[in-house]
Design a protein that fits this description.
193 residues, mainly alpha
Amino acid sequence: MSEKAAHRRRFVGETPKGCRVEFAGGQLRKPNNRERKKGMHEDLEKVKLLACDLRDGKEFPRSPRATLAGYVLAARAVDKCRAVLVQLQGEYHSNCPLDQRWLNFAEIDYGDFRSLVASGATDDEIAAWIEKNAKKRPRAEIVAWNNKERDLRLSDLPHELQEFMENYIQRYVPRNRVVYHWFDVYDLEKQRI
């Protein structure tokens, strides 16, 4: 485990004393009106401690099957958003169609979600925020949606996404690996299954 990964796992919440992260040519910006109004401000030093380095296959976002606040896709969306905020995203994108499936179901605004992640919030803090801000639904409805997402086949996706995935699979999924479900693409790519 890398030293940065150890820091990320060990320090949940506050930045450890004496730990300083330098940004090339950068100062942290002042919070904008929207952030001030919501009581959030960017803390990119804290985000950098929590972020995965998604460049060149060093680390990967969590599986889409991993849950945060009871939702599949949410933990992966957090990992990608953190990486984008501190320019460690590589070829990954935040607010992509995969993230949008969860954001739309939970009825969470991406700008609000991004602002929270940019504040340096931990997974526990993000989970609490999601529980407070997501559309209130019975747990059974969320579980049913999670299972539907886990079971989606490529043929169930919109045509544009099917076309994108066809090229993505050829490029990233090891040869001779069969994709049964949409989430398999991401887990096969990272050799989780």
